[in-house]
Amino acid sequence: MKRFSSAIALAVAAAALLTRALPGQEPRCSSFPITPMAVPVPQPVLPPPVVPAPPPRGCKICVSECVPTTKKVYSCKCEEYCLPRCGCLAWLFGDKCGCEHDNCGDVKVRNRLVVRRVPDCDKKICVLKDAPVGCLLPPEVIPPPVQK
Known about the structure:
The chain is α+β, with helices and mostly antiparallel strands. The chain has a domain at 72-139. 14% of the residues lie in helices and 32% in strands. The chain has helices spanning 2-18, 90-93, and strands at 60-67, 70-84, 104-119, 123-130. Strands 1-4 form a two-stranded antiparallel sheet. It has a two-stranded antiparallel ribbon with strand order 2-3. The radius of gyration is 39 Å and the shape is flat. The two termini are 64 Å apart. The mean pLDDT is 75.
């Protein structure tokens, strides 16, 4: 079977390589006229526009805050159940499956995975907050605006 598959793959590869041109590709010799590409004309460099100084803005400070977190707790729960006893071909011959005729099966146990989210220790993170109103940065400290 492997020899047959490899022979088919080899035949398909050989047929693909021996074809004259694959569909969807440009022909090797083109009869289209070659058009010259447009050359961009250099533009004179203008000085950047004068930007007025930004107004002073309020301070921002870094503050640590507590964030509540949760963690997953896994446990196992045993669950007992029973199924009605049915014959292998009961559904084919129309026999009734159920507990009415004392056809109850054995007690079975299945294990269920229980996943719960419970509160965990609070985590501290740094958050950027506005400083009190009285705090203003001097103009020398304010970074210049980013030019695009």
